[in-house]
Amino acid sequence: MRMRFATRAFLWSFIPFAILLACSFWVIQQRVQHTVRSGLRSSLREAHISMARLRQESELQNSRFLRIVAENPPLKAGLQLLLVHAKSASARLTLEDQLREIADTLSFDFLMVSNSDGVPLAGIIRIDDQLVAMGMHRMKPPQQGFFTLGANTYQLNSFPIDINEENIGVLSIGERFDLSEFSTPTILTQDGEILRSSVPNASSAELESAVRGCGNQAECETNIAGEVYMTLAADTVNFGNGYTLRSLQSVDSISRPVQGVVREVFLIATLGALAAAAALSLFSSRSIVRPIAAVVSSLRQSEATGTLPSFQSTPASIHEIRELIESFTRAASAVQESREDLQRAYLEFIGSLAGALDARDDYTAGHSRRVSYYSCAIAEALNITGSELEVIRVGALLHDIGKIGVTDSVLRKPSRLTSEEMAEVQQHPSIGRRILEGVRGFQQYLPIVELHHENWDGTGYPLHLADVKVPLCARITHVADAYDAMTSARSYRSALSHEAAIRELKRCAGTQFDPEIVKALLRVDEVGKFARHARSTVPSPRLVFLPRATGEASQ
Amino acid sequence: MLTRAISVTLAILILGLSLRAREIEGTITIQRRLTKRKVTSTADLYQRGVAVELGSDKEQNPLAFERNHVAIYLEGHLPSEKISAELNQQDRRFSPDLVVIPAGSSVSFANLDPIFHNVFSLSKAKSFDLGNYPKGQTRIVAFPKPGIVVVDCHLHPNMSAIIVVTPNRWRTKADASGRFVLPDVPPGTYTIVAWHRAAGFFRKTVRVTEAAGASVDFTIPLDAEGVVEQARQ
Based on the number of CB atoms within 10 Å of its own CB, is B148 exposed (0-12), middle (13-18) or buried (19 or more)? Predict the structure, then answer.
């Protein structure tokens, strides 16, 4: 996958950072929540214990008070009566009557008298606000603990009835057991079955299964309707008969607000830290990428312009970046140098090729160089500059390269040529084109090589093209070639003077030559370039084209 | 003491001489409201599950109740008589709760309730304990000495009755309006006594002639708590 360096740097710095942050925050949050939870749990336990202690104390107080009830002389007398008249219904009635009076005066819900062996003798119980005598042969309430009759559960306490230090019986006093006196949700179970519950929003079945999981543990955690509850057994009193009193506290509902706050705080902290991490990563990735991006952009610019990048303006404060720039600069200048060497070698080759061509015939010695010079002069007069001028310069040098394929006897024949010989000579533009066609980088010179003998009126060769169908560079070279040919001596004629040649050019302008180019030539002539630079005075092509290599050439 | 013995002898003489007896009549006035009556609701009410407010009986005027519970008798060795009085235990009460009898009389204590009762007294004049006995049983106690006998029930501390054993046969109870009459009093000078459970003894001297009886009014002052100011003195 292709990815920008900045993106890559950002992601590689941000993602591990973010993961690390998120993980550590999560761990810390879990830790804090755990601590909060266990703190809450221990405070719950303490509350439970202190409540149990309070309850124990109040039960102790209550038992002191109830003990006085057991010291009631008429009650003792009644018990004695019943002990004596064990079978007497009216004796039992008497005792029940007494119990009823005590219950009524002191608002007890259950009173029972047993003999010293624990056999219940008489008892009354409050059902639907009525005190009813209990048939002791049918009911077997315990002396202590809980007793359930119908929908009511009674909590019982027992106190000995003594006369003269001798125990004659037991008084059991009970009050209806009401869970509302407990400040915490509480359940009363008998053998795992729920008798009473003050736990909100929980069915008996749920509670039973939840408590069953606790077994005989005094303290345990259980799950009711998806909430974690902590349950503690009220172990202060031994109730017996399978009765268990448990307080239940929802740890969840107590810790929920605290946990909510903790979660919120950590969420905000995490988001803040992630934002900070993102900003930091962005900043660091940018600070890494910016100098590289600057280098890249200057490289891209140099690619577009073809010039060597200059890094002088780049603030390369980073050591590695500076080294990169320096090594790149070194490499680039090496490439540049080798390219210049190549160019130089190539031009030297062109120059020597042209020179070798001209050297075949004394009369044409220096011809190519001169045509190149004249062509450039005309082109400059026509405001041609840059690479186009360069094409004209090199193209003009090579314009007669096709003469390689023309035999020496034809070429150096001192007399007029026959029509066959003429036809052979006229082959040289096409031969030149063929030669250069296959050479890479020489395509731009082909129009000059092939078409520098086309006439303005279409009478030239080889393609007989007229006027502007012939490229400008070829037309310029055509004029320059004609001028040099006229001002040079041949074996069959002497050289024309400069003025005669100009006259001839003027005469043929519009027929053989492009009149505009002839005019340009005349403008150059007015400056004196043509006259001043007669044959031998034309500078060496090397000096003309590669002024920088002057020193090297002179060696 | 001597003068008193003389006067008593004199009175007997006069009584013996006189054939025409007159009556002593009078009125008891309770000045203030007295203590709450001790009321115990019946066992039946409890059995029926009716809530009973203790210590009040709307049907009875408390002052009338107190007037009705004043015993009036004459002091002195006068002829007595033996009677048989009844003091039943009914509806977890002694009924009546004030019995006035001459010395030497007997009282039968019958248990009419479905439950056991116990009758006992720790009084100086007569202490006894009849034990617990169920419905239908009756026990009889003789009271040879004059005095105030408080009768209680072991099983039911709210039950209480008073037996006033008088030295002679002239004794009565005031009615609800406070009126009382001691009939057939021979002419003479007597000490007439009014006794109230909380207020104690009030004595007055009366003179009965052949021509006319006597009229005595007692005023028994009680404060709000039922404490007798005079009795304290």
Answer: middle
Count how many pairs of residues, chain A against chain B, have C-beta atoms within 8 Å: 52
pTM: 0.55
Confidence of residue A309 (pLDDT cuts 50, 70, 90): low
- The H or E element spanning position A305 is helix A251-305
CA gap A79, A162 in Å, rounded: 11
Contact (CB, 8 A) for B185 and B178: no
Interface test with B, best of A80, A93, A99 (most B CBs within 10 A): A93
Which DSSP category does A468 fall into? G
Kindly state the helix (H) or strand (E) to which residue B141 belongs, with its residue range: strand B138-143
- Say whether pLDDT at A314 is over 80: no
Q: Exposed, middle or buried: residue A550 (CB in 10 Å: 0-12, 13-18, 19+)?
A: exposed
Q: Which residue has the tokens 């540049």?
A: A336
pLDDT at B58 over 90: no
What average pLDDT score do residues A402-412 get?
A: 81
Rounded distance between C-alpha atoms, residue B230 and residue B202, angstroms: 9
pLDDT surpasses 90 at B102: yes
- The answer to whether the CB atoms of A85 and B157 lie below 8 A apart is no
Is the pLDDT assigned to residue B99 strictly greater than 90?
yes
> Per-residue pLDDT for A236 more than 90?
no
For residue A219, give both structure tokens: 């303290």
Query: Which is nearest to A502 in space by CA: A532, A480, A477?
Result: A480
**In chain B, which residue's Cα lies nearest the Cα of A124?**
B47
Q: Per residue in A442-494, pLDDT tens?
A: 788 888 988 999 999 888 888 888 888 888 889 999 998 888 888 888 777 78
| Chain A neighbors of B43, CB-CB under 8 A | 93, 97, 100
Q: Is the pLDDT of residue A202 over 70?
A: yes
Give the integer Cα–Cα distance in Å for A30 and A9: 32
- Given a cut of 80, whether residue B144 has pLDDT beyond it is yes
Q: Are A111 and A129 in contact (CB under 8 A)?
A: no
Note whether A368 and A394 are within 8 A (CB): no
Supply the pLDDT for residue B1. Answer: 57
The reported pLDDT for the residue numbered B229 is 45
Q: Which residues of B touch A85 (CB under 8 A)?
A: 116, 132, 134
Closest Cβ–Cβ partner in B46, B116, B157 for A91:
B116
Asked whether the predicted pLDDT for residue B33 surpasses 70, the reply is no
Tokens of B192: 């007439």
- The structure tokens listed for A290 are 């910016």
Asked whether the beta carbons of A112 and A172 are under 8 A apart, the reply is yes
Q: Mutation test of the interface with chain B: which of A72, A90, A108, A130, choosing the one with the most B Cβ atoms within 10 A?
A: A90
pLDDT reading at B232 higher than 70: no
Determine whether the interchain pair B134/A88 forms a contact, defined as Cβ–Cβ distance below 8 Å.
yes
Burial of B118 (0-12, 13-18, 19+ CB in 10 A): buried
What is the SS3 assignment for A175-206? EECCHHHCCCCEEEEECCEEEEECCCCCCHHH
Could you count the other beta carbons within 10 Å of the beta carbon of residue A315? 11
Question: Are the C-beta atoms of A184 and A48 separated by less than 8 Å?
Answer: yes
